[in-house]
UniProtKB/TrEMBL annotation:
The entry's keywords: Amino-acid biosynthesis, Aminotransferase, Histidine biosynthesis, Pyridoxal phosphate, Transferase
Pathway info: Amino-acid biosynthesis; L-histidine biosynthesis; L-histidine from 5-phospho-alpha-D-ribose 1-diphosphate: step 7/9
Protein name: Histidinol-phosphate aminotransferase
Gene3D superfamilies for the chain: Aspartate Aminotransferase, domain 1, Type I PLP-dependent aspartate aminotransferase-like (Major domain)
One Pfam family per UniProt: Aminotran_1_2
Subunit and partners: Homodimer.
MF (Gene Ontology): histidinol-phosphate transaminase activity
Residue ranges occupied by any Aminotransferase class I/classII large domain in the UniProt entry: 39-368
Cofactor(s) for this UniProt protein: pyridoxal 5'-phosphate
Reactions listed under catalytic activity: L-histidinol phosphate + 2-oxoglutarate = 3-(imidazol-4-yl)-2-oxopropyl phosphate + L-glutamate
EC number: 2.6.1.9
Length: 391
């Protein structure tokens, strides 16, 4: 390639960038680690269910008519979900992950300049979708220990009159919850305002509390769920939502045809047909979350909360904060274990989010944690910078 043509290409690429919508040009895109680690504890998947549905899927694939477009209405899947939740089929919508349904909520309701209220920190896609639509995310910080504060949230809602409110329960990445006695009155107050209320219950199965029963009371309420977490189907991309028929009519206006492939629908259906396999696995995950939390808290007790803090979680992951976060992350990577880190600044500075894995995976993780905080005799672990100074 000549220098001239390279220059022309660079110029054309710059021009292309300048053609981007301003809201997209300035966007910080969602980052996914490309590596496939030996032990993957960075995305809140359910490793206990690895390989569980493949044999059945393989058998049923034989009769899947892949030369035809899939069912655009996902009827069989929606009927299965409706039966599972005791609601009408018309009150269920499915998506390519709940991610897609989040984007439909924004596409359907948020115009340039509209406000969208979110907790801070929380799942970043609400903000990314809002910015893409030209809307303005309004973050309401969680309180000390990432505990949700209903009063400031409601106050901010009254002040900004958002088009959409997202509440994540349990929250990602903190694992904290909004108890029903707090959430239900808050919903009643929010329902007085003119806004859509999206309750993201992606981790519901690990928590057990829901407000899905309120979809008949509040037409503006939508409950987001996913098969990616407890159901062990993150690779399939299957999410769903429960809401009023009025809400479904709104989302139906932006939903593309044939959004879920026949493969997605079949795998999701098989997974739900074998949902009885789920309960014992959920108990294992919850049991291990409690064990890991206890072990980490015992370590924190010895080390001091400024060296290791474990935030209470009702999901399938634990958020910890430690000045040794970067070192711990590095040691985990060296051991082939990937967790989610959040860098050194912002509300999640020095935090790591650790998915609860299988027994072997959890034990390996805990061993690295022990080693970093309590190195075996003869091997030293760096002290955090601020402690070193105090000598
Ligand atoms: C709170 C929350 N909502 C939604 C999602 C998206 O899930 P999916 O698109 O896999 O259904 C996630 C994924 O991490 C999440 O943590």
């Amino acid at each position: 390639m000549t220098k001239n043509s390279t220059d022309q290409q660079t110029q054309a690429a710059q021009q292309l960038f300048s053609l981007l919508k301003k809201s997209v040009r300035t966007l910080n895109p969602y980052h996914v680690e490309p590596a496939m680690p030996r032990i993957k504890l960075d995305a809140n998947e359910n490793n206990w269910l690895a390989g569980r549905f493949q044999p059945i899927l393989q058998e049923r694939l034989e009769s899947l008519p892949i030369h035809q477009y899939p069912d655009s209405d996902c009827l069989a899947l929606r009927e299965k979900l409706a039966a599972l939740h005791g609601v009408d089929r018309e009150q269920v919508i499915t998506g390519v992950g709940s991610d897609q349904i989040i984007s439909w909520v924004i596409q359907a309701f948020v115009e340039a300049g509209d406000q969208v209220l979110v907790m801070d920190p929380t799942f970043s896609m609400y903000e990314i979708d809002t910015l893409m639509a030209g809307g303005e995310p309004v973050r309401v910080p969680l309180g000390e220990g990432f505990v949700f504060q209903p009063e400031p949230f409601l106050e901010k809602a009254r002040e900004t009159m958002p088009k959409v409110v997202f509440l994540t329960n349990p929250n990602n990445p903190t694992g904290g919850v909004i108890a029903p006695e707090v959430l239900r009155p808050l919903l009643a107050s929010l329902a007085q305002l003119r806004c859509v209320i999206a309750i993201d219950e992606a981790y519901y199965e690990f928590y057990g509390e829901t407000v899905a029963d309120l979809i008949d009371t509040y037409p503006q309420l939508i409950i987001l769920r996913t098969l990616s977490k407890a159901y062990g189907l993150a690779g399939v991309r299957a999410g769903y939502a429960l809401a009023s028929e009025a809400m479904m009519d709104a989302l139906g206006r932006v939903k593309p045809p044939y959004h879920m492939s026949g493969l997605d629908q079949l795998a999701a259906l098989i997974c739900l047909e074998h949902a009885d396999a789920l309960q014992p696995v959920l108990q294992k995950v919850i049991g291990w979350r409690e064990t890991m939390e206890k072990e980490m808290k015992a370590l924190a007790l010895q080390e001091g909360e400024d060296r290791l803090r474990v935030f209470p979680s009702r999901a399938n992951f634990l958020l910890i904060r430690t000045p040794l976060a970067a070192k711990l992350d590095q040691r985990l990577r060296e051991s082939g274990i990937m967790v989610r880190g959040y860098g050194e600044s912002g509300a999640l500075a020095n935090c790591l989010r650790i998915t609860v894995g299988t027994e072997t995976e959890n034990k390996e993780l805990l061993a690295v944690l022990q080693e970093v905080f309590q190195p075996p005799a003869g091997r030293s672990t760096e002290k955090p910078a601020e402690k070193e100074g105090k000598g």
